[in-house]
Amino acid sequence: MKLGLLLFLAITFTVGTPAVAQELRVIETGSFHGEEVDVKDGELWLGLYKRADSYMLMPSYLTIVSVYDAVIDAEGQKSGKSISVPGLGEPLFLVKGGGFEQARPVMTIESITGEFEPGVEKAFELGGRQYSLRIESDEKGDNDFVQDRSKLIFSDGKTKQILYEVGECSFCHWRVEWAGDLDSDGRPDLYLFLTDHYNVSNQKLFLSSGAGSGKLLAEVAEFTTTGC
Hints:
By secondary structure, the chain is mainly beta. It folds into two domains: about 5-105, no CATH class; about 115-225, no CATH class. It is built from one helix and 17 strands. The strands form four sheets. The chain has a five-stranded antiparallel sheet with strand order 1-7-3-4-8. Strands 9-14-15-16-17 form a five-stranded antiparallel sheet, with no helix packed on it. A four-stranded antiparallel sheet has the order 10-11-12-13, with no helix packed on it. Residues about 1-20 have low confidence and may be disordered.
């Protein structure tokens, strides 16, 4: 996209009649069961995109197309929804509301993205402070799947916080989809794939700016979809 057009979109998105504060929402592009996504064609969101060696929040107009859902549709039906952002490529995710209104660069930590490995800590530094993510479980397993009675622990060396936990986990994988400073407060934010069942995709956005007393992060939005 040409810089002039990006600047025009940023100004259009941030200047004008002030919007009423909205609850933060998060979605991804792709094809989904129709009832799983409450979006309309032409809606304006902010998408997080990788551009060369940097990341940008960029104004993104959604294109919504009705598509055949192979799981539930009869021949000729199109109850599914396809979400795309033509001309901009694939965003990591898109946000709307919650005070996110301006296009800007986003500091991103690529070193910890990917699947969690049993017994392996994901450690990183931000703003001169050290942080870590790890899985703790009462169960011992000999495979790469998350075990029953597992917890995802986030720590800054002083405070430990349970971000997510499960009793039973059916062939689950947990992973870091993105890490960085989305809300520009100098503290880490996380976009994580966390689920307790292989057929459920559950992406959760955690922001430091929403954390209460004694906490490092708060879950502020999620995007949940199913397979078959």
